[in-house]
Amino acid sequence: MSKTEPLTEKMNTDFFPIADVDYLEYYTGNARQAAHYFCQTYGFCPTAYSGLETGNRETTSYLVEQENVRFLITGAYSPDHEIASFVKKHGDGIKDIALRVEDVESAFSEAVSRGAIVIEKPRVVEDEQGILKKAVIGTYGDTVHTLVERKNYKGLFAPGFTACKTEIPICSAGITGIDHVVGNVKKWMSGFPTTKK
Description:
The chain is an alpha+beta fold. The chain has a single domain, classed as 2,3-Dihydroxybiphenyl 1,2-Dioxygenase, domain 1 (Roll). It has helices at 5-12, 31-42, 82-90, 104-113, and strands spanning 20-27, 45-50, 59-66, 69-76, 93-100, 117-127, 130-138, 144-149, 162-163. A hairpin with a 2-residue loop joins β3 and β4. It is globular and about 45 Å long.
């Protein structure tokens, strides 16, 4: 038996196989300005857009990409929107760590059966480019995970998005992928050591 067989066997029986990080959604008070910053400072390229011009009257989003990394930078038009509330509470930051999966229904069921919080049950969004399946789960705090199944969608990013035209000069920063995401959580255990002044 080779040393790689146990790992391969474990991967083949993974109850929640993840193909990749699909995108990280960044909530901000000014999506256009934040997208410009990501492009100018970190070398991302804007590729897709959703907003008033595409019929979206609630939010504006810019998809920026570099190699295998995608950030969806989203802001709200209304101060009463949940995005505005998130930004007031946390400042600009990551709200959604979206994960690409082969089968949304199966991944969602397995995660919920093990304690994930149901935020949004599996649903289909579609346009002339095909069908995109999504579901949203919560684990802790205000961060969520959108499960995305793309195998039957051939469009740019998602229904409701159009190609983003820009004249921002871009110079790649050499970012090629996301290897991990860190979540900051507040103290939640009683009896946890504290420092007194």
